[in-house]
Amino acid sequence: MPSRSRSRSRPRDVAEAAKAGNSEQEIVSVAIKQLPTDIRERLEKLFEEGLLKEGDLDLRCITVFASLNEGLQSRVMNHMETERIYVANARSKSGFLIATCDKAKTGCLDARGLGAIDPWRTALVAMATPKQKQIELKPEADWLDEKGESPVKMNIDVSAVESELGMTSVTVELSLTETVAAVKAKLVAMGVRSIPANRMKLHTEPVGFLKERFTFAFYNLEAGVTLVLSQRKRAGTKYRPDHTVMPKRPAPKVEMPAAAAAPAAAATAPATA
To answer: Structure pTM?
Structure first.
């Protein structure tokens, strides 16, 4: 009987090669052939020159390399072709290729490092951004049990409307169960007209600005507290200054010499009859 030769067809893609039970190097060869033509030829040239040998690249590094777009793949190849000494001395060629792909993603392979991620930016932004103070307040019910609900005297700094009231500070008497709305109503009754009630802000240390939905007992205020009146300019924090951006230098003022300023003034002066 004539002998039958069993020829196994070459797999077309990585998935088909893996299902066929091929070795890892055969799968790597299939994955390299699926790269763009220009990139594949440049990578195969490194194998022909002896810079890379069979078994140096595993499937993981080829998969990471193939996941890049063609522009980043070209930058990776430029780096490997330029830094041949580092490729040759790398303990793991696969690790070198993966590290180069990571550098290409972050822009470290661009000219002058443009687009590279600054490793210190996160720390510098955290240092430059003011941190809010954390204050531990007692529960409102416990504060009322301790201080009681009887009216207490509060000092209001009204320096912002001194021209209307004729004084810089006033004293009001309110219960700790009241809110800031009661203080605003008293200020309007005293004759404050320049700041509408819906634009009044009251601030005290260390809790900051008081909100109308919370009582004085919620903020753990007591007799003798001082509230500072101010006007709300606008809502939101859209235009919060960025402390990480260097301030712009003012443009230098160019002064015209006296000799050049005289003819210019004579030319612009109207002619007298």
So the answer is: 0.41
